[in-house]
Structures are given as C-alpha cells and as structure tokens.
Design goal:
about 400 residues, alpha+beta, Beta-Lactamase, Phosphatase 2c, domain 1, 8-stranded mixed β-sheet, about 40% helix, elongated, PPM-type-like_dom_sf
C-alpha cells in the first residue's frame, strides 16, 4: 500500500472520560455510509442533537457524542480536548506545528477486541500528537483529515510516538477520519473516527456529516467550558470572602495534622485555637487517621455528621462516631473512636448539603446515601459522580462536598 499523504477537507467553524463498548454485531443495518440518502443523514443529525449536550459536564458530553457516533458512523472513535481548556477553561494559543497538549476524554468501540483498543488508546491519557500524524495535522490546520486506508507506516509512527506496539497491530488497513473541534475560531481538540479493514472505507460524502457532528460537539464542549470557568470564578470569589479567622482555622488544622496526633487530641487543640480566634460562626470538623498496618481507622468528631463505611462485601453502614461540640465552644475532650477498615473498604466523608435538602431530612438523606454506596465495587470517581448526581441533581449550592478514601 502506498504511503502517500492524507487528503484535507476544509473545516467549518461553528458559533460556538469514559470508555464505551458496543456489540460489533449492532453495526448491521445501522451503518451510515457514503451512499446513505441525505434524508437519513439529516434524521441522524437531528437525533444526535437531542442526545448530545444534556449536561454541562464536558466528559459526559463527549461520552454522549461517541454513544451516537459508534457504531452508526464508525467501528471506533475518540475525542481529544486541549488540556489547558479542561484545567483552566481558557483557549490556548494554537501552535503552527500542531503540537498541542491534549487529553483523551472519551472513547467508544464496536469491535471484537475492545480491550486491545483500550490499551492502545486509554481514556485520560494526556499526549502531544506530532504534526506528521493525521491527528496533529488536523489540529495544526483546523481542517478535517481523511485517510481512506492507513498503511503500516502510519501505524508504526503512531506506535513509536506513544510507545505502544499494539497500535501498530490495530491501525494498518483502517480507514481514518479526524475532524477538528472548532469554536470561536479556536481548535478545542479533535474528533477521530476509525473503521476497521473489514468495514467500508470513509468516503468524501462522510466528511460533511462528521464535520457537522463535530461542530455540534464543539458547541456543547464550549458551553461546558464556559460553565466550568464561571463556576471556578464564583468559588474563588466565595473563598476570598470567607472570614479571615476561618482561613486561620484551616491553616491551624493543616499544621496540627503534621504533628501526627490522634484525632481526639488534634480536635482538642484545634478547639483551643478556635476559641482564641473568636469565630463569629460555628465550625464543625471530622478528623480520621488510617493505620495501614493494623487495618483500622481512628475518628473524632466536632459536631460533624458521621462517616459511612463501605465494607469490602459492598455493604454500607454509618459509623457510630460519638460527636463532640463544634469548634470554638470549649470542649474538655473529644472521644476517640476506632473501627476496622480492611483492604478494599471505603470511607465516605461528606458535608450536610449532600444529605439534607427540601425533599428529605438528614436521616432520610443518610439512608439514601448508604443505599447508593451499597453494592459491587466501582471506581472512586464513578461513585462520586453517581452520588452527587443522584443526591443533588438540580442543586446550585456550594456547601456540598464528598470525600472518598479507599483502603489498599
């Protein structure tokens, strides 16, 4: 197969972290091809519009896009977003050579060997795509790149660039389509679709469809970016308005934590500090210390809600921590409580905003939290997302926090 150069198509500017596995048999009768009627393509885009952008969460938006695109448009796909856009909410300058730092936010596959593709292109990877790769070309030129069939050389180049031999095994013979995600004249990242050697190659007629899908995706990603940036700004402003004595209390907590005191002694000393600061509002605190060798956790509470322990068998229970008075009131002592925390156990700490609301009281909220945490083990990030989304689906409050710690 001749190496050659990929063909370019003009990109169109719009106004403006998950791995999905699909059954490869679902391709039959679903695949949009170059010969697909325009009416069917329009119906596909209308359906995509209703399913994409249901949330202002960037990662969820990317997963929704790939859920629509695979296998209707391709056997595999991925979305890469510029790293600074994710971490800072700002448009980075576009390098002329396309060497931008991007993160793989989501991927989807409808293939027989899905986990080979996951090893080759892991979600969450932050990387730079060199300009000699189609992905780098799309970023540098802001134009869609179509490679009807990838030759072995391109597969080897990708494998060498990312240090994974499995890439050189998967890509040769595949059809490759990379569309830049364009918003406000800037490249947010790129949207890549792949068809295996056994599937029909991408054609010129596929470019317009994928560019339209990429444009709609870019709008949703940019909206998520703006929301995240505004939220960070609001939180920073809120933090700056906290009373200076509260800032001192936080500093005191960090200092005492470095002394390796047991939780009860730490809260006793912190209470004395709070008394000298003359706080104008009540502050609660729960402090825990994990002993890896003993497989136990020591906990003391200054008026805070009790933590929830998820045992390795998946059963969640509220720990009977004896609460003392809030900080600054002047307690003579705080009770030290100790519980088993074996490997695989999960400890959940939270604020009252997570379990108390207009719809239910704290007891009901705690019961709901335990029910959500009970079950087979999942990744910590997935558990956090699920709990926050279920407990606070429409809340704009900022007094909601959930901290999960897993014993290993």
């Amino acid at each position: 197969m001749a190496r050659g150069y990929p063909r370019h198509f003009g990109g169109r500017t719009s106004v403006n972290p998950g791995f999905l596995i699909k059954d490869p048999r679902s391709r039959a009768g679903l695949r949009l091809s170059g010969a697909t009627a325009s009416q069917e393509r329009l119906a596909f885009l209308n359906e995509a519009s209703t399913r994409i952008g249901s949330t202002l969460d960037l990662a969820q938006t990317c997963r929704e896009v790939l859920d629509v695109a695979v296998p209707r448009c391709a056997d595999a796909g991925g979305i890469m977003v510029q790293e600074r856009l994710i971490t800072e909410g700002e448009f980075p300058a576009r390098p002329n050579d396309g060497t931008a730092l991007v993160r793989r936010v989501a991927t989807a596959v409808a293939v027989e060997n899905p986990f080979d593709w996951d090893r080759a292109f892991p979600v969450g990877e932050v990387a730079v795509y060199p300009p000699f790769l189609p992905q780098g070309q799309a970023m540098a030129t802001a134009r869609t790149v179509l490679v009807p069939r990838l030759d072995q050389g391109v597969g080897d180049d990708n494998a060498k660039a990312f240090g994974r031999d499995v890439i050189a095994e998967l890509l040769p013979g595949c059809s490759f389509l990379v569309a830049p995600l364009l918003a406000r004249g800037n490249v947010l990242g790129f949207f890549v679709l792949v068809r295996e050697a056994s599937s029909e190659a991408f054609q010129d007629a596929d470019v317009a469809l994928v560019e339209e899908l990429a444009a709609r995706t870019a709008i949703c990603i940019d909206n998520a970016r703006l929301y995240a940036r505004e939220r960070r700004t609001a939180l920073a402003l809120q933090s700056s308005l906290l009373p200076a004595r509260m800032g001192q209390l936080r500093t005191a907590t960090q200092t005492l934590a470095s002394l390796d005191l047991d939780p009860a002694e730490l809260l006793y000393r912190l209470d004395r500090v709070a008394g000298r600061l003359d706080l104008d509002q009540i502050a609660t605190c729960l402090y825990a210390r994990y002993d890896v060798a003993a497989g136990t956790v020591q906990i003391a509470s200054a008026g805070h809600l009790p933590p929830v322990l998820v045992r390795p068998d998946g059963v969640a229970e509220t720990l009977p921590v004896v609460p003392g008075p809030p900080l600054g009131i002047g307690s003579e002592q705080y009770e030290l409580c100790e519980f088993p925390l074996p490997a695989g156990g999960l400890l959940a700490l939270y604020t009252d905003g997570l379990v108390e609301g207009r719809e239910w009281n704290i007891d009901e909220g705690l019961a709901k939290l335990r029910a959500l945490l009970t079950g087979p083990p999942h990744g910590i990030e997935r558990i956090c997302d699920m709990v926050i989304r279920t407990q606070c689906p429409h809340s704009d409050r900022d007094d909601i926090a959930l901290l999960l710690a897993k014993a290993v």
